[in-house]
Amino acid sequence: MNFTTKVPVATYAYPIDYSSKLLSLGSCFAENMGDKLDYFKFQVKTNPFGIIFNPVSIDRLVDRVINQRLFTESDIFFHNDLWHCYEVHSELSHPDKDTFLEKLNAVIKTMNHQLNKSTHIIITYGTSWVYRLNSTKEIVANCHKVPQKEFTKEILSPEIIQQTIQNTIDLIRKVNPDCRFIFTISPVRHIKDGFKENQRSKAHLITAIHHSPFAIHNYFPSYEIMMDELRDYRFYNDDLLHPSQVAIDYIWIRFFEHYVDSKCFDTMQEVCNIQKGLTHRPFNPDSSAHKQFLVVLKEKIVRLQAKYPHFQF
C-alpha cells in the first residue's frame, strides 16, 4: 500500500558534481539546501547578503552586484542602535557606519566573483508579498523592525514576478552565459500574512515560474513535495511553519537523487561517515580504541583531501 503521493522529479540535465561551483540565493529554505550541500563538501556559497524572500529584492541585489554599484551613505540608515540597509538582511547590520559600508561593499565584490564563476545558481523564492517604503516607493528586502506605518504592503502579480525572474536570468547570463539555474519555491508557510494570503502568495510564484519556459524546465518541486508527500504536521517544527529536520532531510534526498551526479554518491557517503566520526563523543577519550579511531579518521580525511583539495573538515 502507498501512504503518500509521490511527486515526480525529473533528472536534471546538468547534474552537480564536486567540481561544480554553486551559489544558493533566496529564502531560509535556500539556507537549508546550502547547509546540506556544504555538509557533503560541495563548493557552495549561500546568501552572501542574508536571507531574501521576494523575487524583486533578489533581482535588485543581483543587478547591484553585476553592475558593481557600491553602497553609499544614502543606502543605509540608523535605527535601534544599528546601521541597516533595506536591501539586505539584518544579520549584516552593524553599529559602526563605516564598517557597515565596507562590509556591504566587500560582499558586492565577493558575490560578483561568485556570479561570474558559478556553474549552478539555485534560487529559492519565499513569498509574493512585499513591503514598499512609503518615502521612496522602493520595495524592501527587510523592514528591520521599523514601524509598520512606514510601509505599504502589497502582493506581486504573477506577471511582475515572471518579468523579474527573466530579468535575473538575463543579468546573470550577461556575465556568465554558461551557468545553469535551479529554481524552487520555499515550503515554509508564511502564516503571518494570513492563511488565504499565504496560499495566494505561493500560487503567484508557481504561476510565474510555470509561465516562464526557462524557469519551469529548471524547477525543483520542493514546495510540492512538502505539500503532497509530507502533508502532515509531524513534518513541521514546533512553530508549525518551518519544515522539520526530517522534512528537510527528505527533500534533500529527493534533490540529490535527481540533481547530483550519481558518480558522487560514494564520495558523499565517505564524507557523511567522516562527519559522523567528527561529532562522535567517546566515553573515554584517552582509551587506545578511541586514539586508534582518530588515526583512522584522519587517514580517511587525508585520503579524500588528496582527491578533493577544497574539502575542509
TrEMBL record:
This is GSCFA domain-containing protein. Pfam families: GSCFA. Residues 21-255 form the GSCFA domain. Keywords: Hydrolase. One of its GO terms (molecular function) is hydrolase activity. It comes from Flavobacterium buctense. It is an enzyme of class 3 (hydrolase). The keyword Hydrolase applies. It comes from the Bacteria. Its EC number is 3.1.-.-. InterPro entries: GSCFA.
